[in-house]
Give the backbone structure.
Amino acid sequence: MTQAAIYRQNGEKAGEVGLPESYFGAEVKEGPVYYAVNALLTNQRQGDASTKTRGEVNFSTKKPWRQKGTGRARAGMRTSPVWRHGGTVFGPHPKEYDVRTPKKVRRAALASALSAKAQEESSVVVIENIEMTAPKTRTVVEFLKKVDASGKRVLFMLGAVNPVFFKSARNLDRVQVKPFAECNVYDVLLAEKLVIEKSVLDQLEQK
């Protein structure tokens, strides 16, 4: 079983704890990771880019000048794409980007990402269940220093929503706090350090 260091809330090391093999000891598969990340980024696209064709721009359809005898080039319509402020040819139009990823693929991708992080030295640490009565950013800063995560991109994976801890960490640059149920493979891949609350491991072992 893969082992990870476990720390108390004040940053003191409390030993080591085993990580569930189904999530942290799985085979790293690049395929599901690619499809999950690609779907996540694609679904974030707004798809509201829009241009007007020559039939939509607000100009008269009258011929600008007669065909012959003026010395100018022939022109049939002011909406022509050749003219300034004319219509756009093959321009973008509003589109809905919606990529669905099967649940099994998402689970395999998350397990692959977590397993890859677990294979890296000191990239995954566990923190005992967080109990804070009032927001205090200094507590989080001191904890990050003691686990060698200061200045790194850190992802706190909590067992449940913790508004007090979220307020304590929200002003810290490159620090993200999310319940485990809301974490995705992209969050895991971006993080240089994963800090997992002990209750998350208990939930995974029950599954």
User: Anything to note?
Assistant: Residues 7 and 127 are 5 Å apart (CA to CA).
